[in-house]
What does this fold into?
Amino acid sequence: MTIISVSLSEKILEDLDRIQRDTGFSGRSEAIRAGIRMLLSDAAEKNALTGRVRGILLVIHEHDAENAVTRTKHNFLDIIYTQLHNRFKEGKCLELFILDGEADRIRQLKESFQKNENIEHVKLIVT
It folds into this structure.
């Protein structure tokens, strides 16, 4: 097996260790491999989408990232049917986008948020 080096924040490392203990993984590497497998499976599922798609995109971010979210949103108004914004924790915001459009365009929106380091969590659910 190839060995790689990964830099993680203290928060992510704490979360990883907690998940490792709670789920019974034998070590961090095993937990990371499982996470990568889940990411690859999700990416394959989303990449297989074609045609018109409807779905929900959930985005969690620090309140300070609001401008970046707004800029991204304005680039995708053609597929955003509705958006709900909620400041749900101290300094955290939850955005819920209801989407309707071509699969490629919805993937582009999801990837735009995923690439932004100020975005904490992105989850796309399609019908």
User: Anything to note?
Assistant: The first helix runs from residue 10 to 23. The first strand starts at residue 52 and ends at 62. Strands lie at 52-62, 80-89, 92-102, 119-126. Residues 111 and 122 are 9 Å apart (CA to CA).
